[in-house]
Amino acid sequence: VTEIRIYSFMIKELCQQFPQGITDQVIQNDMPHLEPQQRAMAINKLLSLGQLDLLRNSAGLLYRMKDTQTASKMKGSDNQEKLVYQIIEDAGNKGIWSREIRFKSNLPLTEINKILKNLESKKLIKAVKSVAASKKKVYMLYNLQPDRSVTGGAWYSDQDFESEFVEVLNQQCFKFLQSKAEAARDSKQSPMVQRNSSFATSHEVWKYICELGISKVDLSMDDIETILNTLIYDGKVEMTVIAAKEGTVGSVDGQMKLYRGVNAIIQPTGLVKVPCGLCPVFDDCHEGGEISPSNCIYMAEWLDF
Amino acid sequence: MTAQEVRLCGLLLQEHFGDVVEKVGTHLLRNGAQHLRAIVQETGTPMDLVKKSLCVLIQHGACAFSSGRKGPGSPVEYQASFERILRILRYPRYIYTAKTLYGDTGELIIEELLQRGHMTMSSTVKTVADRLTLNMEEGHSMEYSEVSNTFSKLVETHFLQRCPPVEVAGKAVSATPDPATTPGAPANNTTPSTPESFADCYKVPHVTLIGRGKRRNSSEDGEDQRNAKRAKEDPETHGDEGIYWQVNFERFHLHFRDQAIISAVANKLDQTSSEIVRTMLRMSEVTTPPIATCTQALSANEIFRSLPPNYNISRPILDQYLTLLVDDPMEFVGKSGDSGGGMYVVNLHRALANLARATLESVVQERFGSRSARIFRLLLRKRHLEQKQVEDFAMIPAKEAKDMLYTLLSENLVQLQEIPKTPDHAPSRTFYLYTVNQLPTARMLLQNCFKTVANLIERRLFETKESKRLLEKSQRIEAILASLQASGAEPEQLTEVEEMITPPEKQQLESLRHHINKLDSAENQVDETIFLLESYIKSTATNKVIG
User: Are B456 and A304 a contacting pair at CB < 8 A?
Assistant: First the structure.
């Protein structure tokens, strides 16, 4: 038994020599007389003491010195907890779902839940509600910032989509572009100059919004571009892409996006000026039925207007 | 022939031609081509009434006859044309356009021709001159030559065309003189002859018409009827017997289409650009076939020369405007070459597709709100999207986006496309993509428009029927007033008669008038939508281009 202890000590020394981790091969080269069985027992001892980390890479198994800080934290936790902690750590800042922890660790559900509660009370991990599925909780290390895909980024605050915020930004961007277009129209210069001056780059809009200071969160240019895209889908704005020299302010990959306020090409069409065009029971209406043109209340109201 | 279309045609026929024609017409529309005996049997109307109705329909071009399908000896078959009957809805627009282009004379010419169907030039000129003279001051009357001038101008610009001549009997179909055959059934030709296939379609005949319009006093109303009848059997010949004219609807439609494009350009860009597009369209009016996707290529030099004189913009500025028009995402104008300072075409099909798309978007916006419209436009742009992608692009919270998408889906404005990942189409392993197909959606909206117009007409008839008693009373009172005034009664008598209508009744009459006017103008407005959608559908069908 003492031999195992000696061997463990020697392996630990090796690990300290190579902080990035050692493989079985390295141990064998260093201690050629060590049989695989004894080596395995020694390594297991170190693992159970919590002094070694077991990792896997493409070449095979890797043993690494464990960080003493975390080693001390884990004192008093048993193997299973350490295993779960390991899995959560590996998930990084995207977090991991409890069911996936179960798959990876092969532990029964009750055990997992107990361990998670333990770890949470020790303030080692935290649960973050995912914005995609509101009932799903992902776990990640306590001090990590959750990734954007989980919290939703700038448009979500506490899992709620901030529609008002988006609306306000929408209107502000539109007003900015509209006033720029009007200024260009009133300048009475040649048409080409007029049109070019009615364009604004996404960078300009971004700067304007930042200076307005209506946002408590920092917005990136990509965020502004998503807002501008919604304006395009509203039919109020059109976009072109031009080639820009690398290094010009606001250019991304050698191009810049330009936005411009536009007017609709037709007035609201004739069909919608009539009650039938907007009627919710249009399909049920026919002559002689309960709902018919003769007794239509919408028509009666509209006619008396 | 959908049920809505038949219903609408029935209502139009009834209003303009009466019950008998409506019965015969709807029967023909529902059952396709039929011969005379079948019509008589199935509608249960007497033979002579059926004959008269068919004559009325043929006179207006709503019905065509051709020899039977069963061979050369079979009876002639009649077929009603649903499109032509629908045009009745658009008569006010045609008349108004003629008025703006050619003044009161043009307006009356078109009105007369629309009412009568086919007329010779001489009779048209005479009738119009008489009508114009009626509205002029005492002692003035309208020259026939003025009216003839306007008539010729209308023919030159192709707004009027000759009716295709009907072959005289005894030529091709000989054998059994079927009593049902109207004289001159054309030979067994499979393709209907269009008016344009005849060489003299737009040639104004040499007509000797000298004279002025005759004024008729209102007291000769009774004589008026007899005079009108007599005029038809007028032995005076003017050299154009047998040459009948009709209104060329297609030409008017081209004009409306051009107007729609010009106003779209004016809305999107500015007045000058729309003037340039107007010039381009005017230059290619008679050279472009009606179903072309784009006009003939015009060089910038030609455009510059043809601009209206009060628009003195310099040549480089014109070039800039043209470049801007070409660069615009709506693609109204395209550049097809560089000779002559740049060859430009107006993209007719693209413009129609854009207008139709804007119509669809407008309907969705007014009916469901601007956020649903955002989703609709998003789907039009991106073609196919998943539920999650829709929420992300449109920046609408998931719950609301789902609700809106399902509403649009239930109204059939948006379709769902399934893409299975596994052969068993399990729902959890299938992609569900939302998409909008512009052409089928346009067709669906067109049917809705037909139903809407039919509803409006029915409501109008209902309102009139409700107040029938009141209307009759007011008509009697007016007649009494008129006769009293003509025979020189005293003012007290007049006021006594006027007071026979009580104030609440007056109010009712006022509101009735207001209702009827509103319904009438609403019909015209919906007809504008019908025109845009129909043009788009026709243009897509003939060009087989995904717009």
Answer: no
